[in-house]
Amino acid sequence: MKQEFSSGSILHDRYKVERVIGQGGYGSILLAEDLRLSGRFCAVKQVSYDPNYTSTMLEDARDQFMREATVLARLDHPNLPKVSDFFSIDDNDFLVMDYIPGDDLRAVIAKAEANKQFLNEADVIDWAMQIGDALSYLHSQNPAILHRDIKPSNIKVTPAGVVKLVDFGLVKLLAPGEVTITIMQGQGTALYSPLEQYGGDSNMMDGRADIYAFGSTLYHLLTNTPPVNVRDRFLDPSNLVPPREINPAISPRVEDAILWAMELHPNERPRNVKTFLKALTGESTSSLRHLAGKVNFREYQGLDRTEMILLYIAGGLTFFSLLLTLIRNI
C-alpha cells in the first residue's frame, strides 16, 4: 500500500521531505534534503506495488527492484542523474538520486508555443547529442538498460545548459531469458511509445524501442506538435504529418532521420543510437539504411539454408505478433 509522507517527514533517518514534485499511479517523487550533507537536495522516488499482486509476485517485484537499484547506483554519466541510495520502509521501496534543477523540455515547448515560435534546430540537435550519448551509455551496459519512457517531460535542461535524462521510472534490464519486473509498473507514455512496447513482452524489445521514443520526442520539440499515437498511425499512416510540413525551417536531413527513428517496425529503424545520431548530424539516412542492410547481410552469410529459412520465419512471426499486440490494444 502506498504511504503518504508530508513535508517535514524524515525518511531512512536521513532525508527530510520538502514536497511532492511528481505523482504516478504506483509511486511519487519527493524533493528531500539530505540531512547528512547540508544543503544537498535529492529526488526520492517512492515505489509502491499493485495491491492485486500475490505474495509471490510482490516478493519477486521487490527483489527485482533491489537488483535494478544496485545496477542504477553504479551508473556514472554526465547526462544522467546519479543514483546515490536505495532503501525500504514497510511495503514501499525508495530510490534516491540527484535533484536536477531547471525546466523540462515540455515546459520549453510550452514557452515556444506561447510565443508562436519554433525551437531552434541547432539547439534541439545539441540536446539530442547529449540525450543520445546517455542512451548509448545505458544500452551498452551488461545487461543492456532500456529507459522505456523518453519524452519531453523526462528531459531537463539545467541552468548551465546541460541536458539530463531523468526519471528511471520504467527502466528495464534486458537480462537474457529473465522475465523482468520494472521498477515502476507501466508501459511508457502512449504518444511516444513504439508498437512493441504496448504488449509488455520484453522479448520483443531492445534499444530500438528507445530510439522510437527519442525520435518522437525530437518530432515534438521541432514542431510544437505531439506525435500521433502509433496505433492510429498503423491504421492510417497519413496521420503522421511530416515535420517540415509543420515547420519548414527543419532541414531535410533532420526530418529524414526523425522519420527513420519513428518507423513502425523495429527492424526498419536505426540499429543503434549512434547510427541515429549520424543521420541527425551529417550522413544521409538513405546511405545509413543501405549500410545497415549490408551489415545485416554479412552477419547472416555464415548461416546455412535451413537457418536462413528459420530466420525469415522468425521475422514474420515477430511482425505478426506486433500486429496482434496492436489489435489487443485498440
Tags for this entry?
Transferase(Phosphotransferase), domain 1; 41% helix; alpha+beta; 6-stranded antiparallel sheet; Phosphorylase Kinase, domain 1; 2 domains
Describe the model.
This protein has ten helices and eleven strands. With 330 residues, it is of the alpha+beta class. It has two domains: 10-98, Phosphorylase Kinase, domain 1, CATH 3.30.200.20; 103-329, Orthogonal Bundle (Transferase(Phosphotransferase), domain 1). The strands form three sheets. It has a six-stranded antiparallel beta sheet with strand order 1-2-3-4-6-5, with helices on one face. The longest helix is centred in the C-terminal third of the chain and has 25 residues, at 305-329. Residues 174-187 and 294-303 have low confidence and may be disordered.
C-alpha geometry: globular
Please report the number of helical segments.
10
Radius of gyration, in angstroms, nearest whole number? 21 Å
CATH superfamily of the largest domain: Transferase(Phosphotransferase) domain 1
Kindly report the spatial arrangement of strands forming the biggest sheet.
1-2-3-4-6-5
Number of domains: 2
Structural class: alpha+beta
Could you list the spans in which at least 5 consecutive residues all have pLDDT below 50?
A: 174-187, 294-303
Q: Can you tell me the CATH architecture of the largest domain? A: Orthogonal Bundle
Which whole number gives the mean pLDDT? 83
DSSP E strands, number: 11
Largest β-sheet summary: 6 strands, antiparallel
Reading the helices and strands in chain order gives EEEEHEEEHHEEEEHHHHHHH
